[in-house]
C-alpha cells in the first residue's frame, strides 16, 4: 500500500538521520582525541631528541635554531596525520551511510510489517463484516418494499412478512454477538482454573441433539489450566463443525490423549476432503470452505473456527487440521496441568 511505502521511507530517513548523527558525533570526538594524542606524542619525541632547548610547538622560534626546524617537522607531521584521519573518517561515514541506509530500510520494514498486517486484517475484517451485515438487511429491505407496494396486503401476509424479518433480525443479532465475542477475546482477561477436558467433552456430548453419533475415547483424567466456558465453546464449535460437514448418521470419533506435555482433543469425521488451499485459510474470519461439503441447509458465518483458534491460543495452546479423502481431523492442544510451568497469557489471567 502507498501509505505504508511512504511511512517506510520516512521511518528509514529518521533511522538513518539518527545513525549518521551518532556516527558524525563519534567521528568528531575521535578526530579530536587522535589529534591531541598525536600532538602529545610528537611533543614528547621532539623533547627527547632536542632536550631542554625545545619549547612547546607553535611558539615563535628563531628560524636558524634546531627547535624551529623541529617545530616545522612537527607541524608537517601533524597536518599529514590530520588529513589522513579526516580522509579515513570520511570513508568510514560513507560506509556507515550506505550500510546504514540499507539496514534502516530493513528495520523500518520489519517495524511496520506487524502494523501493516494488522491494518490489512482490519480492512478485510471490516469489508467482510459489512458484506455479511448487508445481506440480511438487503433481504429485509427488498421484502418490505415489495409488500408495501401491494395495496391488497392481508393481515396474514403482513404477519408472514414480520416473521421473515424477525428471522433476519435474529441472524443479525447472532452475527453481531459473534463479532463482539471475537473482539472481546482480543482484549478481555479470562479467569482460569483446573478443568478436566474429559468431563467437558462428556457434558457436551450429552447435551448434543445428535450425541449418539459421537464415539469418545478418553483418559481417566485430562486436566489443564483454562477457562471452563471458553474451552467448552471450542469443543462445541468443533463438534458442530464435524456434524455439519459429515454425512447424516455417520459416526464421529473423539479422542483425548496426552502428547509431549499437552492434553490433546481430536475429533474425526468422514466426508469430502478439504483442499490444501482451503486448509491454509480455514481459520480466517468469515472464510467458508466449499459449501458443497456441507449438508443441505447447513449455513454459517465462517467465524466459529476463528473463535476456536483464538481461544486455544490465549490458553497457550495450538490447533491443527488434517484432511484426506477418508476423513478430516481437528486437534487442539493445551498444556497439561501436572507438567505445565506455562502461565496464562495476558488474555488468560488477571
Can you describe what's shown?
The chain is of the alpha+beta class and about 350 residues long. Helix content is about 60%, strand content about 10%. It contains 7 helices and 7 strands, in the order αααβαββαββααββ. A 5-stranded mixed beta sheet has the order 2-4-5-7-6, covered by helices on one side. The protein has a two-stranded antiparallel sheet with strand order 1-3. The longest helix has about 80 residues, at about 65-150. The model is unreliable at about 50-60, about 290-295 and about 340-350 (pLDDT under 50).
List keywords for this structure.
Helix Hairpins; 350 residues; disordered C terminus; Heat Shock Protein 90; alpha+beta; elongated; two-stranded antiparallel ribbon; five-stranded mixed beta sheet; 7 helices
Taken in chain order, the helices and strands follow as HHHEHEEHEEHHEE
Strands, total number: 7
Query: How many whole angstroms does the radius of gyration measure?
Result: 37 Å
Shape call: elongated
Query: How many structural domains does the protein architecture include?
Result: 3
Output mean pLDDT.
79
**The CATH fourth-level homologous superfamily of the largest domain:** Histidine kinase-like ATPase, C-terminal domain
Q: Provide the CATH top-level class of the largest domain.
A: Alpha Beta
- In CATH, the architecture of the largest domain is 2-Layer Sandwich
Going across the biggest sheet, name each strand in turn.
2-4-5-7-6
Give the strand content.
Answer: 5-15%
CATH fold-level label of the largest domain: Heat Shock Protein 90
Amino acid at each position: 500500500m502507498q501509505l505504508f511505502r511512504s511511512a517506510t521511507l520516512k521511518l528509514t530517513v529518521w533511522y538513518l538521520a539518527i545513525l549518521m548523527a551518532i556516527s558524525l558525533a563519534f567521528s568528531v570526538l575521535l578526530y579530536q582525541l587522535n589529534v591531541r594524542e598525536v600532538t602529545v606524542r610528537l611533543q614528547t619525541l621532539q623533547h627527547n631528541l632536542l632536550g631542554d632547548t625545545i619549547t612547546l610547538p607553535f611558539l615563535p622560534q628563531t628560524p636558524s635554531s634546531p627547535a624551529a626546524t623541529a617545530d616545522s617537522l612537527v607541524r608537517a607531521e601533524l597536518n599529514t596525520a590530520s588529513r589522513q584521519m579526516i580522509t579515513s573518517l570520511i570513508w568510514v561515514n560513507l560506509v556507515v551511510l550506505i550500510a546504514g541506509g540499507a539496514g534502516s530500510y530493513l528495520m523500518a520494514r520489519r517495524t511496520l510489517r506487524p502494523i501493516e498486517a494488522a491494518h490489512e486484517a482490519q480492512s478485510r475484517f471490516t469489508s467482510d463484516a459489512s458484506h455479511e451485515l448487508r445481506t440480511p438487511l438487503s433481504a429485509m429491505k427488498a421484502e418490505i418494499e415489495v409488500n408495501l407496494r401491494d395495496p391488497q396486503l392481508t393481515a396474514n401476509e403482513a404477519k408472514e412478512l414480520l416473521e421473515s424479518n424477525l428471522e433476519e433480525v435474529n441472524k443479525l443479532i447472532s452475527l453481531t454477538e459473534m463479532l463482539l465475542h471475537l473482539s472481546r477475546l482480543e482484549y478481555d482477561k479470562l479467569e482460569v482454573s483446573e478443568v478436566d477436558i474429559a468431563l467437558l467433552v462428556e457434558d457436551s456430548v450429552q447435551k448434543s441433539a445428535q450425541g449418539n453419533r459421537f464415539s469418545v475415547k478418553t483418559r481417566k483424567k485430562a486436566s489443564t489450566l483454562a477457562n471452563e466456558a471458553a474451552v467448552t465453546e471450542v469443543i462445541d464449535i468443533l463438534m458442530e463443525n464435524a456434524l455439519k460437514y459429515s454425512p447424516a448418521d455417520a459416526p464421529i470419533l473423539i479422542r483425548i490423549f496426552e502428547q509431549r506435555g499437552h492434553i490433546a482433543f481430536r475429533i474425526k469425521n468422514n466426508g469430502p476432503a478439504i483442499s490444501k488451499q482451503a486448509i491454509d485459510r480455514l481459520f480466517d474470519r468469515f472464510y467458508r470452505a466449499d459449501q458443497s461439503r456441507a449438508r443441505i441447509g447447513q449455513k454459517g458465518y465462517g467465524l466459529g473456527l476463528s473463535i476456536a483458534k483464538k481461544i486455544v491460543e490465549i490458553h497457550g495452546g495450538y490447533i491443527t487440521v488434517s484432511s484426506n479423502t477418508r476423513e478430516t481431523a481437528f486437534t487442539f492442544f493445551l498444556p497439561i496441568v501436572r507438567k505445565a510451568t506455562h502461565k496464562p497469557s495476558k488474555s488468560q489471567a488477571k
